[in-house]
Structure formats: C-alpha cells, structure tokens
C-alpha cells in the first residue's frame, strides 16, 4: 500500500484500486503479482483515513505522474519505510500485547486477513483475488481453514429422491469403492 495514491480510492463505491508498488527507490506501475486489483474498503476505514495534502506525491515514478498524494504517506511526507514502521510502531505494539516471544511479523497481518476471510466462508478464489495471488496454489495454504457445513454437504449431495432420471434395479449391482 506504500505506493498507492489517494486518487486510487473511490470513497463513494468503497473500493481502492491497487495499481502501484513502492520498491524503496521509485513507484512502479504494478503491484504484487503484476496485476491491478480492486479491494473493498469498509466505510469505517474510509471515515478514519486522513486525507493527505493536495498535490502530487513528489516521488519518482517509473511511469506517469499522479495528481494526488500517497494514500498512506510517511509522517514527514514521501513513502513509508516498512523497516521504520516496524521499529517505531509494530515492534512496540507487539511488545505491549505480550506477543514478543511468538515471533510475530508484520506479514502475519496479511495471513490473519486471509484466514478470517476463509473462516467466514469466502471462496479461496476470491481470497486469491483480494491478496493479489497470481496462482490459486499460493492461496491453498488457507484451505484447511475453510468451514464445511451441513448445508455445503447437502448442496453437493442432494437426496436421491430428487433425481430427474428413472432409477433402475441395475444400480443394485454397482460395487462401492473400498480403501485399504
């Protein structure tokens, strides 16, 4: 998010277009996975955003110039440095929460975000899209968190009485599969 400009946020629709990344030197015209994506932003998040000062961000862009400042500028302007953020904000928060001994990293926020979506029943393909994964295989690490409900099983395996084809005695001769 360090390379995102405020003009990429549609506050009325509640969507941010992730289209840039900050590499520590310049803003590149592609994010993780090199594909632009659209991520919903909840109203309570938009309400808490501080609008950066008007005008361009004044950072070097590999391609193009943007009319607006960065969505999340550093305290003194420019792009946030994730190492500085980790030292000044993240590490003290982890310590205050009593989590220092667990090896918690800033990337754990991303894992938590994805895990909560999967546990809430959001499809893995949608989670992959939100995270910007180029392959669903990357997102499969969260598959074990997906809840399976009676509704899911009933949807996949409807009662046989509802079949729209005639049943014949031939089905009695079908041998079931046995494991082991």
Give the SSE string.
EEEEEHHHHHH
**Widest sheet, order of strands:** 1-2-5
The quaternary structure here is: single chain
Report the mean per-residue pLDDT as an integer: 81
- Note poorly predicted spans: none
Distance between the termini: 51 Å
Strand residue percentage: 5-15%
Rg (C-alpha, Å):
24 Å
Total strands: the figure is 5
Structural class of the secondary structure composition?
A: alpha+beta
What spatial form do the alpha-carbon principal axes imply? globular
As for the number of domains, it is: 2
Helical proportion?
A: 25-40%
- Please count the helical segments: 6
Largest sheet: 3 strands, antiparallel
Structure description:
- By secondary structure, this protein is α+β, with helices and mostly antiparallel strands.
- It has two domains: 1-80, no CATH class; 81-158, Intergrase catalytic core (hpI Integrase, Chain A, Orthogonal Bundle).
- 29% of the residues lie in helices and 8% in strands.
- The protein is built from six helices and five strands; from the N terminus they run βββββαααααα.
- It has helices at residues 43-48, 82-96, 107-119, 124-131, 136-139, 150-156; strands at 9-10, 15-18, 21-22, 27-28, 37-40.
- The chain has a three-stranded antiparallel beta sheet with strand order 1-2-5, with no helix packed on it. Strands 3-4 form a two-stranded antiparallel ribbon.
- The longest helix has 15 residues, at 82-96.
- The protein is globular, with a radius of gyration of 24 Å.
- The model has no long low-confidence stretch (mean pLDDT 81).
